TrEMBL record:
Family: Belongs to the glutaminase PdxT/SNO family.
Protein known as: glutaminase
Keywords for the protein's UniProt record, in alphabetical order: Glutamine amidotransferase, Hydrolase, Lyase
EC numbers, comma separated: 3.5.1.2
Coiled coil: none
Region listing for Disordered, in residue ranges: 207-264
Name of the top EC class for this enzyme: hydrolase
GO cellular component, one term: cytosol
Pfam families found in the cross-reference section: SNO (PF01174)
Length: 383
């Protein structure tokens, strides 16, 4: 709400950033948040608030928070823990309302609209970011790696400027990838609007892949116009011009090929990839009113895919797709994307919490959390 003199309000004197503490590296995130204090004042933020970390284990904990971090760990275990703590629906409501949320590794999976590579029966997702991710897309534990990442958004942070003044010209961020998820494909506005809110998009997938417990056949990205009917969902026709049908995301078994279509009765086939779709962001009382989506912003990409990584279902991004819905700094393959933002939601496939560098935490607070709290549309007050 605006203040009495009509100016936008300042953030509260203390900002509480929750860390979902079901499983994973939640204590490491909390430690980074604590070390942000005191935030350095800037011209845009002359009186910065203090940052307090709160471990979130219940709906009551979540209600006390201004922002939330979902840590790396095991996404299925985190989702199961949240369900047992009666947190799943509060978390989904949180995301639907556009509250600042950052997911790292497993948290990135939970924030995705769609995820592949889950176990039979699927897994719970929160949704919020228009992408499909592949679990363990960078390979198994033995394929874990570290890579210096170019994150241009970090350059404007006071901590980066202090490093530069001290003679540290290395602006790269230490990316730690441990069984990391991969961005299988970014989902465009046309992809999402071509299907019902609770249905998977029509982007090419592995033949025999299952949608939860239902088997689906090879699906293609819908054309920008006239797509999305029931016949299109199971079409084996040539892909649309928006994306070439290059290598599809492999399942855990090589038994499936483009010629081995499965029927609904074979959904339990061993080795089929599982496709999970997050509950719709739309209000259930107005399912036909589609929720406006903020643009996707790519924060960091790998210059090339490491050994063992999957290219993703979309293959190389076609020029037609770039013209249809251009996204700045989009690499040749969406699978090269390792950090992105959509509105107040941010995700990274790597683990900033496992490094000594706190700049990604500072970036989340300064660019996602504080602007949200200071906006005239925010009605959040300090607890």
């Amino acid at each position: 709400m605006a203040s009495a003199d009509g100016t936008a309000p300042s953030p509260p004197s203390e900002v509480i950033v929750g860390v979902l503490a079901m499983q994973g590296a939640f204590r490491e995130h909390a430690s980074h948040l604590t070390r942000l204090n005191p935030l350095v004042s800037t011209r845009a933020l002359e009186d910065p608030p203090s940052i307090r970390a709160l471990l979130v284990r219940s709906p009551a904990d979540l209600e006390r928070c201004h922002a939330l971090i979902i840590p790396g760990g095991e996404s299925t275990a985190i989702a199961l823990g949240a369900a047992r703590a009666h947190l799943l629906e509060p978390l989904r409501t949180w995301v639907r309302r556009g509250r600042p949320t950052w997911g790292t590794c497993a948290g990135m999976i939970l924030l995705s609209r769609e995820a592949i590579g889950g176990k039979k029966g699927g897994q719970e997702l929160l949704g919020g970011i228009d992408m499909r991710v592949g679990r363990n897309g960078f390979g198994s534990q033995v394929d874990s790696f570290e890579r210096r990442l170019d994150v241009p958004a970090l350059a404007s942070l006071p901590s980066s400027k202090r490093r530069a003044d001290a003679g540290d010209d290395d602006s790269g961020f230490p990316g730690v990838f441990i069984r990391a998820p991969i961005v299988d494909t970014l989902l465009t506005r046309q992809d999402i609007q071509a299907v019902a809110p609770s249905e998977p998009t029509l982007v090419a997938r592995e033949a025999g892949e299952a949608h939860a417990d239902k088997s689906v056949t090879m699906q293609q990205r819908s054309p920008s116009r006239g797509g999305g009917d029931d016949n299109d969902k199971n079409s084996d026709a040539a892909p649309s011009a928006t994306r070439p049908s290059l290598p599809t995301t492999p399942s855990s078994s090589s038994a499936f090929s483009s010629s081995s279509k499965t029927s609904a009765s074979s959904s339990a086939t061993e080795g089929a990839s599982i496709l999970c779709v997050a509950p719709p962001l739309e209000d259930s009382s107005s399912p036909d009113q589609r929720t406006p989506r903020p643009p996707l912003e790519i924060l960091a990409s790998l210059s090339e895919l490491p050994r063992g990584a999957r290219q993703g279902a979309g293959g190389a991004v076609a020029a037609a797709a770039l013209d249809q819905e251009p996204i700045a700094n989009r690499p040749e393959h969406d699978a090269q994307i390792v950090a992105l933002r959509q509105g107040n939601l941010m995700c990274t496939s790597f683990h900033p919490e496992l490094t000594a560098d706190g700049r990604m935490h500072e970036l989340f607070v300064r660019q996602c959390v504080l602007p949200f709290l200071s906006s005239s549309s925010s009605s959040i007050t300090s607890s």
